[in-house]
Amino acid sequence: MSTSLELSMNKKSKGFDFKRFIINHNYILSLILMLLIGRIASDQFLSFPSLMNLMRSSVFIGIIALGMSLVIISGNIDLSVGSILALSAAIGVVVFNTTQNMLLTLVMCMFLGALMGFFNGIFVGVAKVASFIVTLATLTAFRSITIQFGDGGPQIVNHEIYFDTLRKLGYGKLGPFPYLVLIFVGITCAVWYLMNRTKFGRYVYAVGSNEKAARLTGIKVEYIKVMIFTITGLLTGIAAFLYIARFGSVDVATAGKGFELDVIAAVAIGGTSMAGGRGFIQGSFFGAIILFAIDAILSAFQVPAFVTDFIKGVLILGAVLLQKALDRNAE
Predict the structure, then answer these.
(1) Count of CB atoms within 10 A of residue 39's CB?
(2) Is-above-0.70 flag for pTM?
(3) Which helix (H) or strand (E) covers residue 141, if one does?
(4) How far is Cα 59 from Cα 197, in angstroms, rounded to an integer?
(5) Which of 30, 137, 273, 303 is buried deepest, with most CB atoms within 10 A?
(6) What's the CA angle centered on 250, arms 248 and 254, to 5 degrees?
(7) Domains in the chain: boundaries
(8) Residue predicted with more confidence, 77 or 294
(9) Residues in CB range of 10: below 8 A, 6 or more apart
(10) What counts of helices (H) and strands (E) characterise the chain?
């Protein structure tokens, strides 16, 4: 049973393997390529403010992608994250307008996200229903609840208190670094530690590599799956809170719509195997940035909007095919 963690340990014992490093971390090459192309598209692309704006734009997708990495590494998928974000954020706005308390709003968004993730996890882990079917159903169900909750209209933060509180988080900086970027980096480090320095992380890789073998070794596969979806929901709840801070409103019909596709794309670009059992948290971090770099580059080249998604789709498919080719070459 091979995991990316075991590959890394074998690498250390045999000395540095540059070929293996490139295979496992090809997202670094993709990021460098995007930055070079961006520099050609615009003289300001590589300026510090532009890079910070790029990272800030990728925060919501990136944080959810960290959770999606766990789901995909375990051999599952979660299509409901966009709807989880919308419902968590919509209720979060009401909580903030009622209490004017940022911490309570954050806790509520995290709780709601974790609760919906737990709901998914129970069906996938305990009831043993395919994750694609479960999350396809909850994608629609959670969105329907959100629209009903908001009466089809936007949920708007009270502007009298927004500018003195949440907006400072959404637009503020610590020195030259936006708060959102620092939070994104901090959460990435926490999830990386979880996956690379704890038993839980090793169990996630084991379940994705070979579920039957993992079960025979005593791993509680059902528990691991429930926890994976709960953690993903929790991270989506955090993203929902930051979404409120950034935009000050939530359109219940469109907020988070399509996020699941961008999140999966970020994870794929980051080098996580769609078959499960292998992947890197830092890859998803950079994958989200690469995804938004593609958007920025296409915009700089004045590519028509209707062509943008087509080009993005081709690039994503190319990244997955490249990953598969590198994997075969490494065998």
Answers:
(1) 14
(2) yes
(3) helix 131-149
(4) 24
(5) 30
(6) 140
(7) 4-326
(8) 77
(9) none
(10) 17, 4
